[in-house]
Amino acid sequence: MGNSANILLPLDDNGHPIHLPTPSGTTTVVDGTSGSAASGQFTTDTTVRLAMQTADGFYKIAASPTATTSDVPLADKSVEYILIPAGNKIACVTGKLHVTVCQGG
Predict the structure, then answer these.
(1) Distance from CA of residue 50 to its chain's centroid?
(2) How far is the C-alpha of 76 from the C-alpha of 64, rounded, in Å?
(3) I need a labelling partner for 50 at 20 to 30 A (CA). Which of 12, 60, 82, 86 fits?
(4) In this predicted model, what pLDDT tens digit does every residue of 58-73 receive, in sequence order?
(5) Residue 1 falls within a domain, yes or no?
(6) Residues in CB range of 96: below 8 A, 6 or more apart
(7) Which CATH number fits the domain that encloses residue 29?
């Protein structure tokens, strides 16, 4: 291996490496601090990195979503990787959701 560093990936329950998508740098902020707000429509199946900022929030994925506090919770300053199917948007409420498109998802 020469001088290259060994990079250890996290393992799943079966001992297989878990692939993590790489953020591409394209980030949209969906501001749900004053009520439900939605992103633009995704035209292809897209893996995204979600990062909630400013407060605990909730999100919903649908063709025309309105997020409520009954939807998927996401704690302040936490991160999730999810797939948004083509033709859908993501909405959030009670916080600002940073949505970053990923490569390799």
Answers:
(1) 3
(2) 24
(3) 12
(4) 999 999 999 999 999 9
(5) no
(6) 29, 30, 31, 32, 33, 52, 53, 54, 57
(7) 2.60.120
